[in-house]
């Protein structure tokens, strides 16, 4: 009996876990991006390329790779944290970078709205999965 009930709820528990994890990752990215953009040291940088990732819709998601120099003159090369299917950032394009002086590899391109959009999308989809999973789980446990 218990095994049968676990078999019924296990996909729902996975839905809760995946949705919750996606939402947490989105919240962390949104907070990190917001913190860097509001309190980070701003310097000029340049887009030096893009890294492509395969996605399920046969499109390639891309994350910009950018370089900048800290105020101390140290060179830093960083890749955006969230890869998206559409970006307006092009190789050679000058950008404004906000970075954490304690860890310059923690950096964001100020003009890149796709990082906030990607984080919001993770929060929304993850939250939706979690909410739907919770409703289904409660209805099965009570019904």
TrEMBL record:
Residues in DUF3592 domain copies: 45-110
User: Domain of life of the organism in this record?
Assistant: Bacteria
- Transmembrane segment boundaries: 12-31, 119-142
Q: Name one Pfam family in it.
A: DUF3592
What keywords appear on the UniProt entry?
Answer: Membrane, Transmembrane, Transmembrane helix
InterPro entries noted in UniProt? DUF3592 (IPR021994)
Which named protein is this?
A: DUF3592 domain-containing protein
Native species of this protein? Nocardiopsis ansamitocini
Source organism lineage?
Answer: Bacteria, Bacillati, Actinomycetota, Actinomycetes, Streptosporangiales
